[in-house]
């Protein structure tokens, strides 16, 4: 209510009206202009490629590359690129100068759930391009406490937090707000349940899931180091709850921290992986096949660029890349065998895997192995034909008749995580079967 006193991040702010929520922010005009400029360049390049493909069948020579035209035709396409660049730069510069005025006119505003979801999806698909072009829609990694960005220079009051930290990491094309799910009309948030039942303080991670997993891993490792150094009470335990790609990010972060000699991995006690594609997801590999097929003829080859809009983060899911060496020096759109450097789970940490399958518990073996619609069971459980790549979890749990996204809203998953984190719950044994003999 307006006029009340509220506490935010340990600071008292009196008689401030509640912030309004807005789908659009002042910087969105510049962001859309940059996207439109990129789209125009892409369409022009695509058109020129088709044009040259047709000309080449008639024996006409090409330009500097096989996808470029020459002569007057090439000059036209070159002019379109030049004009688009100049117009885009001019609009972006004008809107940059206009943004402070728009911000004053707009006033303070919080993002809506819908806006956050759209921006997260856009980052997942092309977040690497957004960052490279300086687009305001590119999401910087941030740690969040009670819905606000956590600034290590202004920590919460010691009376509002505990020494048991739970780092919560979302998956591809998602954000931290989407941990608030619903099941049968009732709210479900695994992290909130752990906080209420076991005294954890949830720290949510928001990041650009279109970047390489290892890039996000480096950034997260550094931010966690800063977090523990500045936390207002002694940290007695650090645990992690990660969904999908988030599981790869935390594995990468632990490795990065160990290489830098940072100490926070020593306080890491538990990691729960929810539907993490430790050995990749077949849908990305299927998308890679589209690249190959489109590039097989001169007429369709220019359209392969559409398939290559997949971000670095998406292509990392082909095999489950977690290290720089997995992707550096490689063409990420070229179909190659799995050449990852094997990375075991961190020593001394209780690692738990939750996998899901859309099949019934008594379904055929083939149905059960299909997984949750995005991640196969074997990948989520860390199983691999090569011994060096196998991941060995403390315990594993399979959620049947469950889709990948339903792992966030399943009360049964909540109870399982609570059980793993040390609380005994009374619920039907059929809902708490620890799978120890999962089909290999």
Word description of this protein:
- There is one protein chain.
- This protein is α/β, with parallel strands linked by helices and 440 residues long.
- It folds into two domains: 26-109; 142-281 and 339-431, Alpha/Beta hydrolase fold, catalytic domain (Rossmann fold).
- 40% of the residues lie in helices and 15% in strands.
- The protein has helices at 28-57, 71-106, 113-132, 190-198, 213-230, 245-260, 282-294, 304-307, 312-316, 324-327, 365-370, 377-380, 411-420; strands at residues 5-8, 11-14, 20-22, 109-111, 142-145, 148-149, 164-169, 181-183, 186-188, 201-206, 237-243, 268-274, 350-357, 395-400.
- Strands 6-5-10-7-11-12-13-14 form an eight-stranded mixed sheet, sandwiched between helices. It has a two-stranded antiparallel ribbon with strand order 1-2.
- The model is unreliable at 1-20 and 424-440 (pLDDT under 50).
Strand neighbour order, sheet with most strands: 6-5-10-7-11-12-13-14
The mean pLDDT is 78
**The CATH homology group name of the largest domain:** Alpha/Beta hydrolase fold, catalytic domain
* CATH fold type of the largest domain: Rossmann fold
Spatial shape: globular
Count of runs of 4 or more consecutive helical residues: 13
Helix content: 25-40%
CATH architecture of the largest domain: 3-Layer(aba) Sandwich
Please state the structural category.
alpha/beta
**Chain oligomer state:** single chain
Number of DSSP-assigned strands: 14
């Amino acid at each position: 209510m307006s006029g009340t006193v509220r506490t935010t991040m340990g600071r008292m702010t009196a008689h401030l009206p509640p912030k309004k929520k807005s789908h659009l922010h002042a910087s969105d005009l510049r962001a859309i202009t940059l996207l439109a400029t990129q789209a125009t360049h892409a369409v022009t390049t695509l058109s020129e490629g088709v044009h040259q493909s047709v000309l080449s069948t008639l024996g006409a020579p090409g330009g500097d590359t096989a996808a470029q035209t020459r002569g007057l035709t090439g000059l036209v396409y070159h002019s379109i690129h030049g004009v688009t660049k100049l117009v885009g730069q001019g609009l972006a510069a004008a809107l940059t100068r206009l943004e402070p005025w728009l911000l004053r006119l707009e006033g303070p505003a919080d993002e809506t759930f819908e806006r956050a979801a759209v921006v997260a999806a856009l980052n997942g698909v092309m977040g690497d391009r957004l960052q490279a072009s300086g687009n305001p829609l590119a999401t910087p990694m941030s740690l969040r406490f009670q819905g606000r960005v956590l600034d290590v220079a202004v920590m919460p009051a010691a009376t509002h937090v505990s020494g048991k930290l739970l780092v919560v990491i979302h998956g591809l094309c998602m954000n931290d707000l989407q941990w608030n799910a619903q099941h049968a009309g009732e709210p479900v948030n695994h992290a909130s349940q752990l906080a209420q039942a076991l005294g954890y303080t949830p720290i949510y991670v928001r990041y650009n899931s279109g970047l390489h997993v290892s890039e996000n891993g480096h950034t997260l490792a550094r931010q966690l180091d800063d977090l523990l150094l500045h936390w207002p009470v002694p940290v007695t335990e650090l645990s992690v709850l990660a969904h999908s790609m988030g599981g790869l990010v935390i594995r990468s972060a632990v490795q990065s921290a160990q290489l830098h000699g940072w100490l926070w991995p020593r306080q890491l006690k538990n990691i729960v992986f929810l539907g993490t594609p430790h050995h990749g997801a077949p849908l990305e590999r299927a998308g890679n096949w589209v690249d190959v097929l489109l590039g097989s003829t001169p007429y369709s080859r220019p359209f392969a660029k559409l398939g290559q809009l997949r971000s670095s983060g998406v292509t990392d899911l082909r095999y489950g890349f977690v290290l720089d060496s997995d992707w550096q020096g490689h063409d990420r759109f070229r179909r190659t065998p799995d050449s990852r450097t094997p990375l075991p789970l961190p020593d001394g940490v209780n690692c738990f895997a939750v996998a899901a399958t859309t099949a019934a518990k008594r379904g055929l073996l083939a149905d059960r192995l299909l997984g949750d619609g995005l991640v196969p069971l074997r990948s989520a459980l860390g199983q691999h034909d090569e011994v060096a790549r196998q991941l060995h979890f403390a315990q594993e749990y399979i959620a049947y008749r469950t889709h990948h996204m339903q792992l966030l809203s399943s009360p049964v998953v909540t109870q399982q995580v609570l059980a793993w984190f040390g609380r005994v719950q009374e619920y039907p044994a059929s809902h708490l079967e620890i799978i120890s003999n999962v089909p290999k």
